[in-house]
Amino acid sequence: MTARKASExxxxxxxxxxxxxxxxxPKIHSFASAQPDNIILTGIKKAEDSDDIVLRFYExxxxxxxxxxxxxxxxxxxxxxxxxxxxxxxxxxQGGAIEVATSKCEIKTVRIVHA
Length: 115
Prior knowledge:
about 120 residues, Immunoglobulin-like, 5-stranded antiparallel beta sheet, 9 strands, mainly beta, 4-stranded antiparallel beta sheet
């Protein structure tokens, strides 16, 4: 929990004020979330070689665990990659979530293919 609070303090959200417009999303919307609390989701970006989305996260409490990433987009598939975005293994998609084995203090990179 301390690592999450420190990350929130040291890396505040960058906001952008958007003029009023019609849209499909609610006023409050989260693209992705990670559980449990000792998992810090540090990056969401477009893949270097495709329109896939890359998520990067790490474990902060020194425990091996199962990380669950919830995505609001419809997912076609997901793969674990190395830091250079080279595919390592396929991850099963269950509804709007993926589950990844995470070792203590490990940095993970996941590529998701959205519909």
